[in-house]
Amino acid sequence: MIRAFVNYSLANKLLVLVIGAILLGWGAISFKNLPVEAYPDVANNYVQVITQWPGRAGEEVEQQVTIPIEVQMAGIPQLATIRSISEFGLSVVTMNFDDESQNDWNRQKVLERLTQVSLPQGLQPQIGTDWSTVGQIYCTR
Asked: How far apart are CA 53 and CA 74, in angstroms?
């Protein structure tokens, strides 16, 4: 089989050279378009909504804070998953987005939707900080 391939290649040198040139050009273009970063950010694009409601049970926080926020955020474009934690006096809703999405755009859409959530009187949900876990690893000494 290999002998037949070599004989065919030797008989059709021009075809082999053309295919080789096409592959070389394709490789050069692919290499040029390859994103290379010194410290690539492998973390997901995510936005956290944190709400504190001191003195309330986890079940009450879940029903009156976490679930309304999750329902309001459910239709955001490019949203991959929604995860939440409801504890005593604390609600944390984490939304993971597709890798193609822009984090600033994601945060803007979450802020827009957050203004439409009806929460109990006096509660002010906040968006978590905009930093990457990889950034925290490389910044510590």
From this structure: 22
CA pair distance 85, 97, nearest whole angstrom: 18
Please report, for the chain, the start and end positions of each structural domain, with discontinuous segments joined by +.
2-33, 45-139
> Smallest Cα–Cα separation from 45: which of 109, 90, 1?
109
Confidence of residue 44 (pLDDT cuts 50, 70, 90): confident
Q: Which two tokens stand for residue 129?
A: 């900080």
d(C-alpha 28, C-alpha 48), whole Å: 40
Confirm if 1 and 8 have CB atoms less than 8 A apart. no
Mean pLDDT of 14-24: 96
- Do 125 and 114 form a contact (C-beta atoms < 8 A)? yes
- Compute how many other C-beta atoms are within 10 angstroms of the C-beta atom of residue 66: 20
CATH hierarchy code of domain 45-139: 3.30.70.1430
Q: How confident is the model at residue 131 (pLDDT cuts 50, 70, 90)?
A: confident
Distances (CA, A) of 71 to 17, 52, 63, 83: 59, 18, 11, 12
